[in-house]
Design brief:
The protein is mostly helical. It contains 4 helices and no strands.
């Protein structure tokens, strides 16, 4: 196995970082207590807010896996598939962290917390940090399942 060029790492980290910014803005726009509805002070919406980020993480993970598998199907694409997978998985973790910080930053920037609030981050924040693992886990799971099914369906030499 040859080592992947640094451009592979840069490409996947940049792709997922940009995706993280988009996911963070979408999270702030769509989540309860974000831009359009709900009050961040109401603790009953905090689970829904985390669930919205998890849903966007699933979509981003599916998109990353599809792009990763399409890159492997191209001629010569299998040569650096392990390095490409590791770059995409690390990038997905980076994208999740960026999405979280961008969403919280947008909440801090565009919402005014009440004066009597103990912590201003309560207005818009992530309560379940494990949600940030959804994007990389979905990416890894989809790639694994695709590779497993492809290996099971590949004809063996005994079939010929």
């Amino acid at each position: 196995m040859t080592q992947a060029p640094p451009a592979t790492w840069r490409r996947w980290l940049l792709l997922t970082a940009v995706g993280g910014v988009a996911v963070g803005v979408l999270w702030w726009l769509a989540a309860p207590g974000g831009a359009f509805y709900g009050s961040g002070k109401d603790y009953t919406i905090w689970f829904g807010r985390d669930l919205v980020l998890a849903s966007f993480g699933v979509l981003a993970g599916l998109g990353t896996a599809v792009l990763l598998l399409r890159a492997a199907v191209k001629p010569g694409g299998e040569e650096h598939s392990t390095a490409r997978f590791l770059a995409a998985a690390a990038g997905a973790l980076l994208g999740s962290a960026i999405a979280w910080r961008v969403g919280v930053f947008a909440g801090d920037l565009f919402q005014t917390p009440p004066a009597n609030m103990a912590n201003p981050s309560i207005v818009f924040s992530l309560r379940a940090a494990s949600v940030m693992l959804v994007w990389p886990l979905v990416t890894a799971g989809v790639v694994f399942l695709y590779r497993l099914v492809a290996a099971l369906l590949r004809p063996t030499s005994a079939d010929n």
